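RECORD TYPE: inverse folding
INPUT: structure tokens
STRUCTURE:
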């Protein structure tokens, strides 16, 4: 049973620089009734993701529209169907869709909505390793970098939701994997649990020259593939170490998302030319038709324990702003997820 009103989080104004908690406001909104072709869903888990920062910049044209200040925020969620007027969806079903986050109840038309099995994997993992971040990792590895056995892969943001899956897919394909992350604990997890070859704590290096030196030592034969999550000195170091015929999957540049003025690009882009490097930007939705291939490869690796994952779990919708801001401060370990309500009512 749905309650007459539910909580939802609104953005009061667009942030300049690092978002502040005071920009977010929790309000009560009326629980809507589903009309024909609609269903009422109750959010169980919601995701916070770095791309949401881009939706807080109405001045920049993007692949996805900016958030409105007049409606609750939205984002990926695992939800339970409460009432359904859509064939194929029944009360009690669990679904993932891309609008259910930041609120307790919402209407879905069942478009881009995927049913998920709570017995196959923990519900929250459909927002991480088995969801959009896992699919992003899989696409960058299998469709762009295509690492061969014995090649060297470098991954920035390696302990995060996307990076940790990239690292482990790289290992599964026989690559030597070097990852960078922002704490000793994250680096230890990467080497001891995720099984990568070398983890570099980038906070130990003051600039691109120092990071380049450490990366060159870890990759004496050069880097064959680079998975870019961070930008800035990471990209510069990767371009210094990339080998002939290298491949770069440009997935994200989180170090730049809160910049108020664009930062100049790395001074060594010219290496792309002389070394015949292919650098390809991508958005995961481009590969949506390959979602079954992703699930067929990653779900068994997860079941066999060959892919491990970490989650930072926040309890309660009101914790979502803190979880979101934490993405840009390195406060989350693995996938940041928020438990909005109980698995079952
Ligand atoms: N192209 C696509 O379709 C697509 C899809 C999903 C995600 N992405 C991108 O992939 C990247 C990772 O996303 P995610 O979901 O996996 O996030 P995440 O890694 O789970 O969370 C963000 C992490 O980034 C690191 N970070 C934050 N600010 C940083 C900085 N200034 N310098 C270095 N590291 C910093 C922090 O870890 P540390 O403690 O290691 O600093 C933080 O935990 C992001 O750039 C995101 O935009 C792209």
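DESIGNED SEQUENCE:
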């Amino acid at each position: 049973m749905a309650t007459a009103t539910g909580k939802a989080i609104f953005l009061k104004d667009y942030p300049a620089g690092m978002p502040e908690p005071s920009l977010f406001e929790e309000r009560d909104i009326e629980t809507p009734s589903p009309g024909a072709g609609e269903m009422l869903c109750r959010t169980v888990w919601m995701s916070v993701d770095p791309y949401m920062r881009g939706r807080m910049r109405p001045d920049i044209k993007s692949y996805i529209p900016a958030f409105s200040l007049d409606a609750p925020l939205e984002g990926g969620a695992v939800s339970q169907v409460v009432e359904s007027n859509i064939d194929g969806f029944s009360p009690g079903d669990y679904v993932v869709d891309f609008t259910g986050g930041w609120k307790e109840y919402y209407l879905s038309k069942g478009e881009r909505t995927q049913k998920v099995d709570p017995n196959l994997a923990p519900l929250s993992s459909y927002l991480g390793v088995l969801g959009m971040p896992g699919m992003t990792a899989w696409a960058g590895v299998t469709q762009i970098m295509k690492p061969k056995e014995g090649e060297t892969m470098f991954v920035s943001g390696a302990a995060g939701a996307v990076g940790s899956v990239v690292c482990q897919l790289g290992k599964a394909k026989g690559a030597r994997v070097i990852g960078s992350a922002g704490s000793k604990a994250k680096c230890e997890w990467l080497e001891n649990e995720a099984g990568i070859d070398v983890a570099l704590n980038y906070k130990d290096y003051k600039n691109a020259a120092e990071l380049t030196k450490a990366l060159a030592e870890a990759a004496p034969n050069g880097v064959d593939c680079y998975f870019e999550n961070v930008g800035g000195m990471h990209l510069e170091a990767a371009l210094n170490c990339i080998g002939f015929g290298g491949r770069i999957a440009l997935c994200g540049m989180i170090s730049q998302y809160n910049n108020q003025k664009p930062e100049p690009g790395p001074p060594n882009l010219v290496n792309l030319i002389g070394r015949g490097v292919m650098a390809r930007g991508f958005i995961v939705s481009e590969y949506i038709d390959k979602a079954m291939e992703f699930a067929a490869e990653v779900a068994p690796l997860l079941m066999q324990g060959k892919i491990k994952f970490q989650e930072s779990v926040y309890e309660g919708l009101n914790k979502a702003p803190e979880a979101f801001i934490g993405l840009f401060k390195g406060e989350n370990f693995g996938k940041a997820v928020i438990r909005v309500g109980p698995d079952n009512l």
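NOTES: The pocket of NAP is lined by residues 49-51, 133, 136, 157, 159-163, 181-183, 186, 229-230, 251-255, 282-284, 327-328, 330, 332, 335 (CB under 6 Å).
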